[in-house]
Amino acid sequence: MILDRLYVAWTHHFFIVKGDTMRRSRPRLLLYASLCLGSALIAEPSMAVPPAPCSLLTTAEVEQVLGKLNGAPTSETLGHGVRCGYDFADEKNEFEIWTSEASWSKALRKDAKQPVMVSGLGDEAFMDRGKVDPEAVDLYIRKGATLVVLMTRNGPGVEEKLKTLGRKAVGRL
Fold this sequence. Notes:
Elements: H1 2-16, H2 22-43, H3 59-66, E1 74-78, E2 81-87, E3 94-101, H4 105-111, E4 116-117, E5 124-129, E6 136-143, E7 146-153, H5 158-171
């Protein structure tokens, strides 16, 4: 995309400076190329790797808030996101924490079933219920260039539990 915009800047240079000599048109070309490059950098989502979600919470923290775990968490990369999944000893609950680029935040909020804004977490946060699974509760937190999503099963006090884990996770970004 950036190279495409630089190519456009170069080809447009001939239309911008028609009749000028190359020496006099070079500042115009550099200005136009800079504007195109700058807009390309702003418009393109960052290709930076999101932080590993399994590093944002310890197993002890998850157990303290949600219950006894069955083994270590598992991690996998899916598209632009990285997932960390936790299995519980009672096999009734599940918990996932995802990290991705913050550029996904607006689209996810727009697509949410019942978004409820949450204050005091990152730069922006909202909670949603039942988007994919009617029994699920999701907490989306954007902080800087990172989006953190925490998901678990619905149950007593689940919103506060997710907020507690969300505060710990965002504190480690």
